[in-house]
Amino acid sequence: MPTRLLNKPTAQIRIYRDAQELALKAARRFARLADQYVLGCGRFTVALSGGSTPRALFSLLAAEPFLETVPWSSIYFFWGDERCVPPDDPESNYRMTNETLLSKAPVPRANIFRIPAEKDPHTAAEEYSMTLRQFFITGPGAVRSATAPLASLPRFDLVMLGMGPDGHTASLFPGTEGLQVSDRIAVANYVEKFKAYRITLTAATINNARNVTFLVAGEDKAATLKEVIEGASQPERYPSQLIRPSNGALLWLVDEAAARLLTAETR
Ligand code: 6PG
Questions:
Q1: Does the beta carbon of 53 sit less than 6 angstroms from any atom of ligand 1?
Q2: Mean model confidence pLDDT for the chain
Q3: pLDDT at 1
Q4: pLDDT, tens digit, for every residue of 60-77?
Q5: Which of 25, 123, 162, 223 has the smallest CB count inside 10 Å?
Q6: What is the pTM of this model?
Q7: pLDDT for 137-196, tens place per residue?
Q8: How far apart are CA 120 and CA 73, in angstroms?
Q9: DSSP letters along 41-102, please?
């Protein structure tokens, strides 16, 4: 049965000419959401994705007009996933973000909560979960509201995600144990093809966010994007299909090359 991932009024797809236009639209959306949440509740909490696609977005945010206008001091940065490497490793998502954005924008270091992925994977996942629990649920900064659907999970204002050609998102890879976990905030997920663990938010935590935005660019993702959005429901094979916010907005920002196989109905 087709997933029709977009048949909810809160799920949309926007298609842009190329990766540059995609990055610019994503930067404007980030800035708009930051203003909206900082104005509305005094802070904006965002979990970033890694990989290569967000680089262009981060570089734009680290330049004018965004550098001047974004309320950096009220934004709290987290990550959706991390490779099990030290923060100065070329593979580190934290390092990539720090080099392209956080070292250039006036973000207080106290607002940056990286995944301690240099530690034992299970320790890193537990420590990161504790950090999120304290920030969002038990700590002084926790926003308590009767409407928050699941008090046991953090509720990010924005979770940014990418998608791999294999349909993975964050570090929720096809056929991995982490796909099944719904009672934890983050896990150490063993990925056979890398013969390594990754630290990742669970789908349950991602789906508890107010906004989830995918950034997907490039020809090599076209066939998978079609399967994920229009194909049969196979989340074990295409983990990006697990992402369906329970009480939030889902937005796919993609470029023409990645969207080329989508039907007119979806577009
Ligand atoms: C990571 C990511 C991962 C990424 C996809 C897409 O740590 O690699 O968080 O989920 O978003 O692999 O990566 P690209 O943007 O490089 O295609």
A1: yes
A2: 93
A3: 43
A4: 999 999 999 999 999 999
A5: 123
A6: 0.95
A7: 877 656 555 444 446 899 999 999 999 999 999 999 999 999 999 999 999 999 999 999
A8: 31
A9: HS-EEEEE--SSTHHHHHHHHTSTTHHHHS-GGGEEEEESEEESS-TTSTT-HHHHHIIIII
Does 157 contact ligand 1 (Cβ within 6 A)?
A: no
Ligand 1 atom closest to the Cα of residue 217 is 17
Q: Whose CA is nearest to atom 10 of ligand 1?
A: 170
Atom of ligand 1 nearest to the CA of 50: 9
Token pair for 166: 């294999």
CA distance 14 to 266: 10
Ligand 1 pocket check for 49: Cβ under 6 Å: yes
Residue-wise pLDDT for 65-124, tens only, equals: 999 999 999 999 999 999 999 999 999 999 999 999 999 999 999 999 999 999 999 999
Pocket lining: 154 vs ligand 1, CB cutoff 6 Å: no
Atom nearest to 80 CA in ligand 1: 9
The label of the residue with tokens 């983050």 reads: 186
Query: Which atom of ligand 1 is the closest one to the Cα of 51?
Result: 16
